[in-house]
Write a structure and sequence with these properties.
Keywords: FAD, Flavoprotein. The protein is α/β, with parallel strands linked by helices. The protein has three domains: 180 residues, FAD/NAD(P)-binding domain (3-Layer(bba) Sandwich), CATH 3.50.50.60; 107 residues, FAD/NAD(P)-binding domain, CATH 3.50.50.60; 104 residues, FAD/NAD-linked reductase, C-terminal dimerisation domain (Enolase-like, domain 1). The chain is built from 14 helices and 25 strands. The structure holds flavin-adenine dinucleotide and nicotinamide-adenine-dinucleotide. Nicotinamide-adenine-dinucleotide binds next to helix 5 and strand 21.
Length: 477
């Protein structure tokens, strides 16, 4: 008798950003038959328009900043005039080249990801997907692709991301009033960029464009920039912004942004007008969950349109999972990937660890950067968590002195009992590279004393973290 081949578990994924990509790849690796529907490009917004382009732009801004401050370390650039006298050259940014590099790098990463999916055996379908009940995805891929119109699946993973929020009174025109996705088609540096919104997106672009040489006005509806971050960290960034010549307007909403010829005019809540050459609208995002059949399939959404998921990314319909910015979890690429993994592992019965949002590390890529993990000082102050907070200024660190890093600090939040590390903030250049030992400490429930036993190289910025942990030792009574 011929052996019966077990039918493969069929997974359909809608959206190829970090959430959908990870789900598709891991699903195929675990032996499922996976179809991924993506209507733009694999890698999603993260790779094509959001994370990768913005961080590539920021890399260039960082270099421009190092060049501008090199003189403080005794390194000078000069050219000679016709009488052989040294001239100090200006730093010039070739904006067309910069944006071309950004787009090329993003496309290459998207191509590499598509190749990985294909190697793993994932079927990638280009088109717009929507649910038709809990087991079918319909793909609108244009008149030629009838064969993929219906995908039957045992498990569906929705990872459709989010889109920039648009204000009716400040409609992006793609030329002068822009969303963050439209910045990379500019061929000239904005002479004066008005940034509306001082969340992470607004702060990162304001920081980068200022370092690249644009005049920048940052309109913040709150009392301080980066309202979601540690207050001390946000204060440092705001001070650096102002010192670098950025115009920070606090406590004002942009009620309206209009174009007047070659200018943009932002009208503030108090009636003041700010004129610039370009305006970046960074006022948040809305999930792409409309009209894709979620409600009729029985999937529960929040009032804001986000998909309600549990810690293994399962929605209110048992065989439908969701990952990434379309869900009620943190809108971070790392979280989207973790949800994508959790979804397929759970659906396919593999080992799965429910996601603990409390321990997610994140980073704001301003200059300096702000990296954060775990419980924050605000939670100790408002009584949500018991604990001790200590801070070590970067300017006392020998390596920071050598490199002329004056702005920043390391902060640790530890439990009152044994001094277990429960949270941390690092404000420093490349803080994103310094947060990992603290994440590990939190994940492994290390105490400040255990952390302080680890050796840091001397001199190093990471030495500050060990010094701070050491200073938090509490002698036994
Ligand atoms: C400017 C900016 C910078 C950021 N920087 C960082 C950072 O440094 N680090 C970090 O961790 N996070 C960062 N984020 C957040 C990060 O971009 C998101 O959390 C991440 O992109 C979410 O991934 P996702 O899987 O939800 O999908 P997305 O990356 O949003 O991709 C969703 C995909 O779904 C597709 N899609 C949508 N609807 C359909 C449909 N009906 N059918 C088929 N396909 C569909 C879209 O074309 C898109 O490709 C940043 C965000 C912004 C705006
Ligand atoms: N480095 C990173 O990891 C990174 C970078 C960018 C975004 N993100 C993710 O995206 C999330 C969203 O960040 P975001 O900054 O895009 O959105 P956000 O919603 O956090 O911030 C938007 C800000 O705009 C303000 N605003 C709204 N309307 C305004 C108006 N008319 N005038 C002035 N201000 C106005 C809001 O008060 C808010 O502070 C972040 O929490 C983060 O998870 C991550």
């Amino acid at each position: 008798m011929a052996e019966k081949t077990p039918r493969k578990h069929r997974i359909a994924v809608i959206g190829g950003g970090p959430g959908g990509y990870e789900a598709a790849l891991r699903g195929a690796e675990l032996g499922a038959e996976v179809t991924l529907v993506e209507h733009h490009g694999v890698g999603g917004n993260a790779v094509l328009t959001d994370v990768v382009p913005s961080k590539t732009l920021i890399s260039a801004a960082e270099v421009a900043s190092h060049m501008a401050t090199a003189g403080e370390l005794g390194v000078q650039f000069f050219a000679r005039d016709d009488k052989d006298r040294p001239l100090r050259p200006d730093i010039a940014v070739n904006f067309t080249k910069l944006n071309q590099r950004i787009r090329r790098l993003a496309q290459k990463q998207s191509d590499d990801m598509l190749a990985s999916l294909k190697r793993a055996g994932v079927t990638v379908v280009q088109g717009r997907g929507r649910l038709d009940g809990p087991n079918t995805v319909i793909v609108d891929s244009g008149p030629k692709s009838k064969e993929f119109d219906h995908i039957e699946a045992d498990t569906i993973i929705v990872s459709v991301g989010a889109s920039p929020r648009e204000l009716p009174s400040a409609k992006p025109d793609g030329e002068r009033i822009l969303t963050w996705k439209q910045l990379y088609s500019l061929t000239e540096m904005p002479e004066h960029l008005i940034v509306v919104g001082s969340g992470v997106t607004g702060a990162e672009f304001a920081s980068a464009y200022r370092l690249l040489g644009s005049e920048v006005t940052l309109i913040s509806s709150r009392d301080r920039v980066l309202p979601g971050e540690d207050a001390d960290a946000a204060d440092v960034i705001e001070e650096v912004f102002k010192r670098n010549g950025m115009n920070v307007v606090s406590g004002q909403r942009a009620e309206k942004v209009v174009r007047e010829g070659e200018e943009v005019v932002a009208t503030l809540s108090d009636g003041r007008e700010i004129r610039g050459s370009h305006c970046l609208m960074a006022v948040g995002s809305i999930p792409n969950t409309k009209s894709i059949g979620l409600e009729s399939a029985g999937v529960e959404l929040t009032d804001s349109g986000h998909i309600v998921v549990n810690r293994v990314a399962r929605t209110s319909v048992p065989n439908i999972y969701a990952a990434g910015d379309c869900t009620s979890f943190f809108p971070l690429a790392s979280v989207a990937s973790a949800q994508g993994r959790a979804a397929v592992f759970h659906a396919l019965g593999d080992e799965v660890r429910p996601i603990n949002l409390r321990n997610v590390a994140s980073n704001v890529f301003t200059y300096p950067e702000i990296a954060t993990v775990g419980w924050q000082q605000a939670a100790v102050e408002d009584g949500t968590r018991q604990g001790r907070v200590a801070k070590f200024p970067l300017e006392q660190n020998p390596r920071a002195k050598m490199q002329e890093f004056k702005d920043g600090f390391v902060k640790i939040v530890a439990g009152n009992d044994l001094g277990t590390i429960i949270g941390a903030v690092v404000v420093a250049p490349r803080a994103s590279e310094l947060i990992l030992p603290l994440s590990l400490a939190i994940e492994q429930r290390l105490t400040v004393d255990q952390f302080a036993r680890a050796w840091a190289a001397y001199p190093s910025l990471s030495g500050s973290i060990v010094d701070l942990a050491r200073s938090m030792h509490m002698p036994q009574e």
